[in-house]
Amino acid sequence: MSQQRPYIVGNWKMHGTRAMLGEVRAIDRAGQRHPKVEVALAPPFTLIHAARKEAEQIGVGAQDCHPVDGGAHTGDISPAMLADAGAGFVIVGHSERRTDHAETDELVRAKAEAARKAGLGVIVCVGESEAERDAGRAEDVVRGQVDASVPTSAGAVERLSVAYEPVWAIGTGRVPSLADIEAMHRAIRERLLAIYGEDGAEVRILYGGSVKPDNAVEILGVPDVGGALVGGASLTAESFYGIIRAASGENVD
Ligand code: PGA
Which of 61, 79, 125, 178 is geometrically suited to a Cys-Cys bond with 115, CB 3.0 to 4.6 A? Predict the structure, then answer.
């Protein structure tokens, strides 16, 4: 199993104006205090450049990208533009993108490949809906998403993470049982090993969906949970810090 640092990524979604740059600085200080944790933040596009300038240590990335380098695509942002703005990684295939913008696995894979070509790290999101879990199909659905969404070009495993985010757990305060998280991460790992061979062991599998300071220790302690993708609890340095500290394995400051 990989010896990589836990990866704690804040997804600010459509939240944040320059008034929140103070939170970026505070989150950056938290990251500096816990060098055994890899901390990153994905603010809205409009804050990437400013956040990169404010933050000395943490990663700064984007929440989406377009799959081509440039052209007649009004309102879209290419991976090269993200890199130019200071982004080091991009999240692709978040369930809110898949739902709100009808993104398919095929499109998510194309975005991941384009991001890689631009030198960005990639976090590919997967996760079942509540109806799919209730129907006993959660693992099949997620296996299918992994198979069809992750990049497969040469070297694709470098700086690749997969985030397992059950749709019904996002922003709801509900989380799967630790046994269900473990089973799903094991299923995802099996697919990654099938796709990439032994290199698949190096891909970090993050859990996302209602991760908070008070459940982070137990979730991050589940086998093969390599970090967390955090929405609501990443919006203030105070709550995000609780998760960073949980990931550091320290109980006290
Ligand atoms: P949440 O969001 O932590 O607010 O549930 C997670 C996500 O959507 O990445």
Answer: 79
Query: Active-site residue 94, yes or no?
Result: yes
Q: What is the mean pLDDT of the chain?
A: 96
* Nearest alpha-carbon partner for 192 in 124, 134, 253: 124
Atom of ligand 1 nearest to the CA of 211: 3
Q: Is residue 165 flagged as an active site residue?
A: yes
Q: Report CA(201)–ligand 1 centroid distance (Å).
A: 25
- Work out the percent of the chain whose per-residue pLDDT is above 90: 96
- Convert the pLDDT of each residue in 43-70 to its tens digit: 999 999 999 999 999 999 999 999 999 9
> Which run of H or E residues covers position 92?
strand 89-92
The atom of ligand 1 lying closest to the CA of 91 is 9
Query: What Rg value do the Cα atoms of the chain yield, rounded?
Result: 17
How confident is the model over 171-192, as pLDDT tens digits? 999 999 999 999 999 999 999 9
Give the span between the Cα atoms of 212 and 35, in whole angstroms: 20
Residue 74: its pLDDT value, please?
Answer: 98
- Does ligand 1 have an atom closer than 6 angstroms to the CB of 227? no
From the CB of 60, is ligand 1 less than 6 Å away? no
What would the two tokens of residue 137 be? 């199909």
Candidate of 8, 95, 168, 229 to mutate for ligand 1, largest count of ligand atoms within 8 Å of Cβ: 229
The whole model's pTM is what?
0.97
